[in-house]
Design a protein that fits this description.
- The chain is an alpha/beta fold.
- 30% of the residues lie in helices and 26% in strands.
- The chain folds into 2 domains: 1-50; 54-165, no CATH class.
- Helix 4 links the parallel strand 5 (92-100) and strand 6.
- Helix 2 packs across helix 4.
- The radius of gyration is 19 Å and the shape is globular.
- 8% of the residues are buried.
Length: 165
């Protein structure tokens, strides 16, 4: 098992923590070969989601996927039952996102692509609400403001301890 893969054992039962939240634990294997215990929390979906990479390129002779829209579509296809459960019967889910050390806002870009792939498959609408960003580098702040227009853009992570944050 490589560093990026994760395994959640059958013994690690989710425990109730707060209203509607569950917590599960898992392990990753570091570069040194030792297992490191980690915990994951989620809300109203199965925390035991495990995505294993397919080895399509070797078995079928297909070239690796390089188109981002196709990549995100493939990811959604692999976890279709979980996405259906997440979207619920009304097929709409709102996700509030805040980023710190925001950089190029890659989480927002990725979530936008997930949302598009979900919509293209007729699974519903994943609405992303950008709550705030925090970035210390002025040129990255300008990029974030110009491209994402967050309601609040903190200039330093130290500002997050105040009454407003």
């Amino acid at each position: 098992m490589d560093e990026a893969s994760e395994e959640i054992s059958e013994d690690d039962e989710p425990s109730s923590k707060g209203k509607g939240k569950a917590k599960a634990t898992g392990a990753t294997v570091g570069k040194d070969g030792k297992k490191k215990k980690e915990s994951y929390s989620c809300k109203s979906i199965d925390c035991r989601l495990k995505i294993e990479p397919r080895d399509d390129s070797k078995s079928s002779g297909l070239a690796p996927i390089s188109n981002l829209a196709i990549i995100f579509g493939d990811i959604v296809d692999r976890v279709l039952p979980y996405v259906s459960k997440l979207m619920g019967s009304n097929k709409h889910r709102k996700l509030r996102v805040a980023t710190m050390c925001s950089g190029t806002e890659s989480p927002l870009l990725a979530l936008g692509m997930f949302s598009k792939a979900i919509k293209e498959r007729g699974l519903g609408h994943l609405e992303i609400e950008h709550v705030f960003s925090c970035e210390i580098e002025p040129y990255k702040q300008a990029y974030i403001e110009r491209n994402f227009k967050p309601p609040i853009l903190f200039r330093d992570i130290k500002e997050l301890g105040g009454d407003v944050a």
